Amino acid sequence: MLMLNMRKFKKYIVFNVFFMFFSLGFAGSFEDFFKAAELDNESAVVALALRGFDLNSQNEKGDSGLHVGAREGSLKVVSFLLTQRAVRVELHNRQGESPLMIAAIKGHLDIARQLIRRGAEVNKPGWTPLHYAASRAEPDSADMVRLLLEHHAYIDAESPNRSTPLMLAAMYGNRDLVPLLLEEGADPSLRNDQGLTAVDFARRAERDDLAELIAQRLRQRRAPGR
Questions:
Q1: Distance CA 42, CA 45 (A)
Q2: Which tens digit of pLDDT belongs to each residue from 29-60?
Q3: Angstrom distance (rounded) from CA 163 to CA 38
Q4: Domains annotated on the chain, with CATH
Q5: Is the pLDDT of residue 15 over 60?
Q6: pLDDT per position as a tens digit, 207-222
Q7: Helix runs in the chain, H state only
Q8: Which of 104, 121, 126, 212 is the most core-located residue (most Cβ within 10 A)?
């Protein structure tokens, strides 16, 4: 009986030692994966994939490797991840953001193109990639907006408080975005839950030139015969 108990005890010890080392190895792999995605270390990500690491792993913020790569502009890592069928392109983080939304607000055009080719959703309920792109003030933000519109982004998409991309562009975005969105058919008469229009957004940001441009488009729409 004592011999049997000793055998069980040894098996228990071996199992727990194995589990401890396995857990430590997994923890190290988890950290290595997100660091590699941040630094665009493709070879490290490939090595982890060959070891069976879950490429859909999410960190404490809910970000996946694609989120991190899209944020940091890690084109090589993102390109590799998108070749893996098991990788889910529409994983959302805790803020409800997709990798495409992150790429849109960061202006990483090549990554956005690859995500779209892989099936990333250009249109989704609530905040959309177009909202994010429209709120970016950098000079190249118009290129991202054009890309999304080319792939049928809904130009008057409503956020949870019914704000549209035009409203965000009027308040936060590059000044080229307001005329671009208006030319593409954005509706300047829409109001959000607070009753604010794109004109109000522009005025709140003291962008009087954009407020006048939007107001002019409104007057044109209301002109007799239009």
A1: 5
A2: 999 999 999 999 999 999 999 999 999 999 99
A3: 32
A4: 46-52+61-121 (1.25.40.20), 127-226 (1.25.40.20)
A5: no
A6: 999 999 999 999 987 7
A7: 2-39, 42-50, 65-72, 75-83, 99-106, 109-117, 129-134, 141-150, 165-171, 177-183, 198-204, 208-222
A8: 104
